[in-house]
Amino acid sequence: MERRTFVKSAGLLAGASFLNTTNVFAEDDAAGIIRIGVIGCGDRGKGIIQVLNQLPGKFKVIAVCDVLDFRLDETKKESKDANFTTYKDHRRLLDNKDVDAVVVAVPLNMHYAIAVDTLNANKHLYLEKTMTYDIPQALELVKLVKSKPKQVVQVGHQYRYSPLYYRVKEMINKGYLGDINQIDCRWDRNGNWRRPVPSPALERQINWRMYKQYSGGLMAELLSHQIDFINWAFDTHPQQIFATGGIDTFKDGRETFDNVQVMFRYEGQHSMVGNFGATCGNAHDGYLFKIKGTLGTISLLTDEGKFFPEKKLLSDKTLVDGVTGATRIVWNKEGGSPILPEKTKDGTWYAFNEFYKSVQNKTLPDSNVFTGARTAICVHSANAALYGKMPVTWKPEYDKL
Predict the structure, then answer these.
(1) Where does the GFO/IDH/MocA-like oxidoreductase domain lie (predicted)?
(2) What is the pLDDT of residue 332?
(3) Which end of the chain has fewer CB within 10 Å, C or N?
């Protein structure tokens, strides 16, 4: 489903003159700098601009767009390099021929339309997760990208680029965990998830995550990262989806649930149960990600992880040390061994380094339109089970992406 064969046949890997068709400034061309336009200047958009500013030899933000004036003002103040053009209409930004690539960080219901406009404007695209608002949009975007072989499309599931998560994928593939059967994921917080609203008229524009018209709620905004990693690490997707949830803590007019629990049933090489939950009413667990097998458990945070072998594995020190490269000295009091010796950087930093390489080398990113569609289908199926209060089954046509 990753469709690397498509990339080769469609021509992404061919054509030395490819980049020259979109680059305009000779100075930046010679330096290999990709000129970026950012559409959406909320918290995520501004955060991405800060990351791009940390990669000055690779990216230059030359244009930003938001429909809210105060967002544009905030972006100017927070950026160390405010030498960019501002727009309120994304189509005007896309008309700027100096823009090589576009970052889309807008509310979920706008992802598809702006992604289509970006591709039709012949720009490379970094599209924030979740890729699309619904399943039909995901399928249509795959079709469009297939017709645009010269454009790189990367989806913002950044854990695919973290050295830590790469190492975990390797451990899974090499069988260090044995037969994996359970996945436990949480992303909890204790707060109403709201943003300040300068005017009541802007409530839905700013707090769009609370309303079904714009948002996929906790599944799309938080749990999609862990869902996507499981899809990637195991090259899989769930066959059955069961869910329950509700507005249990913040009865403030919101429509999306503030407490969700979803169970995925996976079949195939690994027959597994995946548990994915999030609440806005308790922050004790925070981010929790455990992958359990007959030989051991991996416990992950966003920037560090530990391997906990089953007791039967402890009797074979050589095998345990081969898993993580650890020795008994670094084992902690809970019996776990660090997967990497140091914490990793924020995943967005790794993701944009990959985006740069993909544009320069004309290669398919690990998080691409095909994998993004698969995760979007998982997210939207989970929401269908949540709000429809009935199990949902994966449809065979989804495997034809």
Answers:
(1) 167-298
(2) 54
(3) N
Give residue 6's pLDDT band: very low, low, confident or very high (50, 70, 90).
very low
Q: Within 257-400, where are the H helices?
A: 311-314, 317-324, 347-361, 369-388
Q: Cα(308)–Cα(197) distance, rounded to whole angstroms? A: 45
DSSP string for 251-285:
-SS--S-SEEEEEEEE-SSS-EEEEEEEESB--SS
Q: Which helix (H) or strand (E) holds 182?
A: strand 180-187
Q: Which tokens go with 74? A: 């905030």
Cα angle for residues 27, 33, 37 (degrees, 5° grid): 110
pTM recorded for the entire structure: 0.89
- Specify whether domain 161-346 bears CATH 3.30.360.10: yes
DSSP per position, 116-146 = HHHHHTT-EEEEPSSS-SSHHHHHHHHHHHH
Q: Would you say 156 and 48 are in contact if contact means Cβ atoms under 8 Å apart?
A: no
Quick check: 16 pLDDT over 50?
A: no
Q: How far apart are CA 193 and CA 206, in angstroms?
A: 11
Helices and strands: H and E segment counts in the chain: 15, 15
How many angstroms separate the CA atoms of 122 and 22, rounded? 8
Mean pLDDT of 367-377: 98
| Whether the predicted pLDDT of 41 surpasses 70 | yes
Give the neighbor-by-neighbor strand order of the sheet with 153-155: 85-87, 59-65, 34-39, 101-104, 124-127, 153-155
Spans of all domains in the chain: 4-158+349-367, 161-346
Domain spanning 4-158+349-367, CATH architecture = 3-Layer(aba) Sandwich (3.40)
